Amino acid sequence: MRVLALLLVSLLTLPATAQTRFRVEDFATGFEYPWGAAFLPDGRLLVTERPGRMRLVGRDGAVSAPLPGVPAVEARGQGGLLDVAVAPDFATTREVYLCHSIVVDGGALTRLVRARLRADGGALEGAAPILDVTPTQPSGRNHFGCRIVFGPDGAMYLSTGERQNQTRAQKGDDLAGKVLRLARNGAALADNPFARRPGWRPEIFTLGHRNPQGLAFNPRTGTLWEAEFGPRGGDEINVLRPGANYGWPVVTHGIDYDGSRIAEASSRPGMEDPAHVWVPSISPSGIAFYDGDAFPAWRGSLFVAGLNPPVLVRLSTQGDRVTGEERLLAGMVRFRQVRQGPDGLIYLLTDEARGRVLRLRPG
To answer: Where along the sequence do coiled-coil regions lie (predicted)?
Structure first.
């Protein structure tokens, strides 16, 4: 049955792009709203499910039972168990980092957790919170952000949503609506841009973000790129600079869902313009740069998982500029995350109750 499913998907999705051809296959199935994915050094894949489970996928696509030791989450609205990342020195430390939503003192917040994957891969051990995105917000269960990425500088970066409370994105004493730069224990780094500014949280790296669910380092320039949901229109790709303000909600290319204006302008001195904007929206979630050998024509591209409308977007880049856009797999299924595998192939998480990990191969 699985072979037939692979064949049907491949036959139905054999798009020819301007530069390359590829085919799509089911790599792993049996997930409920998969959200985050991280490859281990041996090629196996950790996958989170928003209801609160994590599974380990073998190199052959075999999916484990839910791993014990995953922390409790609140899976309401857009919340739940969200991203997963493995430490750069995972081979020796076996450290795994999780991001999820949780209720604390009657309010919901984004939480960062550190744990260890047991040597046999069968469970998480010692899961403990290392950072809460405070202050707690009593209302709302949306806009948690929650992407984790490690940089070439050894720092850990975490994106946080503004929890649909727009003013939080501009507040220096509030961790919501930001990208944070952290040590492995969740503490602020001493050379962070606001570490010595009175009244500001020292963890902040950039501010003025709405709901950033995409983070990736450009392997050619070393810069951190971010994708975030706009309101009705105005989805953004940003190239992040230390201490920079990306404007939300003071500037935006989008409007409110009722059609009313949110901001008077789309640009303003002292605030960074996006590197790329979508009007209308594509609802961008996870992003990944491609530098593998399987698709030589795609090297240097940024791939963006789109939810609404369902699409995989490929952005060509030159340095830290976007030079073109190509839309792939349009209308196929909602995509939550995109990853490059150690085999140079591209892996996609589908945002479905019967979620899958898809794999793109040359074809």
So the answer is: none
Residue 192 placed within a domain: no
Of the residues 100, 143, 209, 276, only one is catalytic, namely: 143
Whether residue 15 is contained in a domain is answered as: no
135 contact partners, CB below 8 Å, separation of at least 6: 109, 174
Q: Is 143 a catalytic residue?
A: yes
- Say whether both 122 and 215 belong to one domain: no
Query: Are residues 232 and 211 part of one domain?
Result: yes
Using CB atoms within 10 Å of the CB of residue 327, give its burial: 0 to 12 exposed, 13 to 18 middle, 19+ buried: middle
Write out pLDDT tens, residues 60-116. 999 999 999 999 999 999 999 999 999 999 999 999 999 999 999 889 999 999 999
DSSP 8-state symbol, 168:
G
**CA of 355: how far to CAs of 59, 76, 140, 336, in Å?**
18, 18, 25, 10
Q: Is the pTM of this model over 0.85?
A: yes
Q: Which amino acid is at 362?
A: P
Residue 80, strand partner residues: none
Residues 153 and 239 in one domain: yes
Do 62 and 155 belong to one domain? no
Rg over CA atoms, the chain: 19
User: Residue 97's domain spans which residues?
Assistant: 31-142
**Which among 248, 283, 281, 282 is positioned nearest to 266, based on CA atoms?**
248
| Domain CATH number, residue 336 | 2.120.10.30
Return the residue matching tokens 């229109």: 233
The pLDDT of 14-25, averaged and rounded, is 72
- How many degrees, rounded to 5, is the angle at CA 97 between CA 66 and CA 301? 100
Q: What total of structural domains would you count in the chain?
A: 2
Cα 185 from chain centre: 21
Alpha carbons 51 and 70: distance in angstroms, whole number: 11
Going by C-alpha positions, the residue among 163, 65, 56, 187 that lies closest to residue 114 is 187
User: Could you give the count of Cα atoms lying within 13 Å of 78 in the half-sphere of its Cβ?
Assistant: 21
